[in-house]
Amino acid sequence: MGATAIACCLALLAWSLAAPAAPAAPAAAGAPAAGAATGSAPGARTLGTRAGNRIAASGNALAACELRLERAPNGLPVMAVVGASFTAGTGPGNAALSWAVLLARTLGWNAVVDGVPGAGYVRAGAGHQGPVARLLAGEDLRALGPGLVIVQAGHDDSGVPASLERQRVGQVISAIRAAAPRARIALLTVFAAQSGPDAALSLVNDAIIAAARAAGPHVIVMNPLGGGWRFQRAARGGLHPSAAGDAWIAAKVAATLRAHGVAPAAGRGAVICDSGAGRGPRSPRLQ
Predict the structure, then answer these.
(1) How far apart are CA 231 and CA 192, in angstroms?
(2) Residue 103 domain-assigned?
(3) For the segment 112-137, what is each residue's pLDDT rounded down to a tens digit?
(4) Is 0.85 topped by the overall pTM?
(5) Could you give the CA distance from residue 220 to residue 198 in angstroms, rounded to a whole number?
(6) Looking at the domain assignment, is residue 30 inside a domain?
(7) Which domain holds residue 62?
(8) Three-state SS at 56
């Protein structure tokens, strides 16, 4: 399939999923993330640096960072991550401390990270910027050529019919395969509050896992709900992780990926393009 055809397919899929069948979760105000990049696109705000990594803010700066990564590759493998508020850095209140950014640092891979609070496979999330199919289309996987694509979503699809959830997950996996046929695909499923899940969350989680299994054995499934993941939370009994909790999640994901043959890179100077700093206020009630 040609690049133009694939781009069109992704755009059409994202457009078709933009209007969810169930009511979208409302966005709420929270603490804005501190923001963005050293040596990145003009206008990006400084998020911080570590071990030569550079993090760029969202909007034009994110696009500029990704474009630079595509045009001037540094020889490192590339990962693409989309997700909801865990990916956006809600909890620590800083996109640079999200599990996704910490994972990229741990692996030493180039990364493009886009997290939108409230986004799911069906729900559009904050500012109607999702669902995740739209976020993936915005990352332009065909041009990026990632070796790994991770989708973190599910909590905010609570109440969505299981059949619809399975359908949307299957469509996302198919779109990733069409745009990035060499990429490993990993799904990070439902997170629940420390008090535990309700029946609706469990149904969504089961639907995501069923769709992943139907897509084939090569889809990596990480199941926080079923696996009993225990990590430090930003608030007692709450949903979102603290900075230490995000670090725990990143380590857990890295270990799972290594078990599936996804190894850290040998080089240095990975570029991390992260939208989180430019999304505006974070909602402590959205994942």
Answers:
(1) 11
(2) yes
(3) 999 999 999 999 999 999 999 999 99
(4) no
(5) 24
(6) no
(7) 51-277
(8) strand
